[in-house]
Design brief:
The chain starts with 10 loop residues before the first helix and ends with a helix. It is 82% helix and 0% strand. The chain has one domain. The protein is mainly alpha-helical. Helix 1 packs across helix 2 and helix 1 runs antiparallel to helix 3. The protein is built from 3 helices and no strands.
């Protein structure tokens, strides 16, 4: 039994992984949708079968409604992660601005001391 990783992956890595997961699931879902409505080519049938097997091996339910729900959840996770990334970047920028202000104040204090 493996122990959970105590530190989450960096935001860009986590986002890239999530986008790749969404892309794979979206392609499978789109093939399912096409199969239900318009019919698909033999190559698409093979791709659908392969993706179905992969998803089943990974423990996913490949039913059409389950895929739609999973894609909705993945989209929500992606949006949440993007918000968290934005908040983190904003916090870093604010910290940098505060440091710059502190350095400017220190410089002014040094100049004032030197002038006296």
């Amino acid at each position: 039994m493996s122990t959970p990783n105590p530190t989450p992956p960096p935001f860009p890595t986590a986002l890239a992984d999530l986008v790749a997961l969404r892309r794979r699931h979206r392609r499978f879902y789109n093939l399912q949708t096409k199969l239900l409505g318009w019919g698909i080519t033999p190559a698409e049938v093979r791709e659908l079968d392969l993706r179905n097997e992969e998803l089943l091996e990974q423990g996913y339910d490949t039913h059409y409604d389950s895929m739609r729900e999973r894609l909705r959840e993945i989209d929500e996770l992606e949006q949440q992660l993007r918000r968290e990334m934005w908040i983190e970047e904003r916090r870093k920028r604010e910290q940098e601005k505060e440091k710059e202000k502190e350095q400017e104040q220190e410089q002014e204090e040094k100049e004032n001391r030197g002038a006296q």
